[in-house]
Amino acid sequence: MWSDKVPAKLANIINQDEYSRSQGYFLANRRFGHISATINLSIILAVLALGGFSILDEFIRNYFSNEILVSLLFFGLTGLLATLIGLPFSWYETFVIEEKFGFNRTSKITFFLDLVKGWMIGILIGGPVLMLIIWIYYRTGGLFWIYMWLVITLFSVFMNMFYSELIVPLFNKQKPLEDGSLRDGIEKLAKSAGFRLTDIYTIDGSKRSARANAYFTGLGPMKRIVLYDTLINDLDEEEIIAVLAHEIGHYRKKHSLSMLLAGILQTGLLLFIFSMFAGNDMLASALGAPGASFHISLIAFALIYSPVSTVISIILNYISRKNEFTADRYASEIYNGKSLANALKKLSVKNLSNLNPHPSYVFAYYSHPPLLERLKHLE
Asked: pLDDT digits over 72-96, tens only?
């Protein structure tokens, strides 16, 4: 909730200058979000009004007749156009807003290299998966959604297990955490929690941002801890280990697995509902297309499904906030709740988080509880 001066309940966490910066950061992002959302919505409405999807479909069919190739090119070209439209927004966010508030460390060369690498990954990895999904649609009849669900599930599990080994090195340098008291403390914590740990890595997050972070990746025996160099610089060892105790709590309480399963079930539900609309000529006609196809049906379905997706997102955010409280409690039980509280305070202030958000906004959009709620539960 808005206030020019530091609210009394935040007085022992943040000073006036830091609070003013966090409010300025919030306002800058809110204005930018409203402007970008309005422009994007206007573009979508203009494309629908002018029959843009139908025009693109017809243009591709002038040169190709194979349905799988037509769909691949359709998604490729719409993805390229979306990237070009979003490029000015990404540039402004990175080199104006993030730069102004001291977060950006991304060079212009890195910015464009990331863009190119993202496209290469999409073509080399996403392309074959998408081709397989389209092939399934045209070859397996009414039960296509079950086979698609299986393919997407296997791909999701694979990426969860190997993302840090296959994708991250394309963008960042990872190296094993050096021997010392921090590594010893983390290994001791993992052992006491019965957490089987493959290895501990550091990553050069400061290459792009001043924000601090840490994460666990992998499933089963492939688990890995990754610490951003910014986190190591911003927190003391007790606080870093407390943050990792929180992350271990997610694993011990099966939060990561349950959220993965929830995502898989959500995908299955989405594909089942899609199967009820796919191939509908009326929906294709609404987009100006002469007949139904995989890509036209998917675009129409995405527009229809958007409100349902918003409701599901609110439910998943609610579950996620509950999980955060549980992981915080776990960390305080197996390690040190005070160190975790101190870490949360430091990270929230440094990252210019909105420390006093409106409850209704938290309910609709926050996947993590606000700082004060987390501190209250830790106490």
From this structure: 999 999 999 999 999 999 999 999 9
Return the HEC string of 267-334: HHHHHHHHHHHCCCHHHHHHCCCCCCCHHHHHHHHHHHHHHHHHHHHHHHHHHHHHHHHHHHHHHHHH
Categorise residue 288: left if φ over 0, alpha if ψ from -120 to 50, beta otherwise.
left
CB 187 within 8 A of CB 199: no
The catalytic site residues sit at: 247, 328
Lookup: tokens for 248: 């271990």
3-state secondary structure of 219: coil
Query: What is the percentage of the chain residues whose pLDDT exceeds 70?
Result: 97
Q: Are 346 and 302 in contact (CB under 8 A)?
A: no
Nearest to 320 by CA among 270, 263, 275: 263
CB 99 within 8 A of CB 44: no
> For 122-152, how does the pLDDT look when each residue is reduced to its tens digit (9 = 90+)?
999 999 999 999 999 999 988 999 999 999 9
Q: How confident is residue 62, by pLDDT bands cut at 50, 70 and 90? A: very high
CA pair distance 268, 151, nearest whole angstrom: 11
Strands 224-228 and 199-203: parallel
| Model pTM score | 0.86
* The pair of three-digit structure tokens given for residue 191, joined into one six-digit string: 């052992």
Question: 32 falls in which pLDDT band (50, 70, 90)?
Answer: very high
Average pLDDT estimate for 325-345? 92
Question: Which residues sit opposite 289 in a β-bridge?
Answer: none
Query: What is the set of domains in the chain, with CATH numbers?
Result: 8-172+252-378 (no CATH), 174-236 (3.30.2010.10)
Q: What is the DSSP letter of 235?
A: S
CB 245 within 8 A of CB 331: yes
Per the CB < 8 A criterion, the answer to whether 33 and 378 are in contact is: no
Mean pLDDT over residues 255-266, rounded?
87
Question: Cβ of 139: how many Cβ atoms within 10 Å?
Answer: 10
